Amino acid sequence: MIKTSQSPDYNNCLVNLANSVLKKFGAKTNANTLPLADKYLAGEYKNVVILLLDAFGTSIIEKHLEPNGFFRSHFAGSFNSVYPPTTVAATTSIMSGLYPNEHGWLGWDIYYPQLDKNITVFRNIEQLTEKPGAKPEAVDGRKAVWTRDSLNPPVTAADFHVGYTYNPYKSIIDRINEAGGKAYFSMPFLPPFPKDLEAILSRIEKLCKEPDKKFIYAYWEEPDSTMHRTGTVSKDTHEMARALEKRIEKLAASLSDTLLLITADHGHVDTHNYCILDYPEIMNCLVRMPSLEPRTVNLFVKDEYKESFPALFKKTFGNDFLLLTREEALSEKLFGIGTDNPNLPQMIGDFVALAIADKSIYFTHFQGQQMPGNHAGLTPEEFTIPLIVI
Description:
Blueprint: H1 14-24, H2 35-41, E1 47-53, H3 58-64, H4 70-73, E2 75-80, H5 87-96, H6 100-103, E3 109-112, E4 117-120, E5 125-126, H7 162-166, H8 172-178, E6 183-186, H9 197-209, E7 214-220, H10 224-230, H11 235-254, E8 258-263, E9 269-270, E10 272-275, H12 280-283, E11 291-293, E12 296-299, H13 309-317, E13 321-325, H14 326-331, H15 344-347, E14 351-355, E15 359-362, H16 365-370, E16 373-374, H17 380-383, E17 384-389
Parallel strand pairs: 1-7, 1-8, 6-7, 10-15
Antiparallel strand pairs: 2-17, 3-4, 4-5, 8-17, 9-16, 11-12, 12-14, 13-14
Helix pairs in contact: 1-2, 1-5, 3-11
């Protein structure tokens, strides 16, 4: 059994925030709203803006920002991400108003039974794999390191977008517009494709000056990108956190008649990384490469090893992971409390390993070497996120 204190509260999470916005703008809801946000959304504003800063969880804010600074002085409280607390699952939840078990966008690499392949869903490529016999390289006499050359070239997953084809959903932007409201995106991956933070914020400023009530959802990839490369307590992360706070304070000063809500999709932790390729006894048990995330590892196991696999996994990785069967993950509502996506049981492996300590299991050496900072596990630091209200 998953202890409730160790897992996200699915009545106090990003899905509920999305449904608060849907209710505010007269669109049909499909889950409870978020009381923490409702009291602010009850006010009359011409503009409501949600700005999501990737991985800027409550613990990261507390590590890097002053208590009397702009963000923490406007801190309304904490609430939860979803499981796994990772960008694919969490941003899809706030963009759709659905739980991961409903929308099916569960992690970075997802197993699609329709193709019998692991797909890196945001990039629509087949999961990256390591070349057979690849080894770390020493350059100019320095310590040998794994390079990108150790990976097989990326392969397009299909001549269609796999995620949107097999797990389609309607965004809250479309749902608000269809209900007669006005709603807009400001993020690099959707029209008009603002390419950086300045362009994203400029679009917010421009839209907020236009007449009529409206909702804007904006997303930026930092500080997640910096923390993956340098960890959660590096100088680079500290400077990034301070720069984001300063720039958003400038944005807020430029807006009028606007409720600005700042949040995150998940938090971030520092981890020690394994590579599953270094454990041939484990690999020998698997039908295919693991999927989802290094801190939520989806494992399809050969029939002859299903009974012995839990003991082998525990012998190999100790108490750093909680190993659930598919049936336990589904019955425990690990991925959400909505109605299960019909594809969900086939997308989940025979076992799912949930990180409960500072360890991650990567699927290639290069990726594990490159990322000292991580998320997607079952710790409060990863799923506790802020609501900052201006």
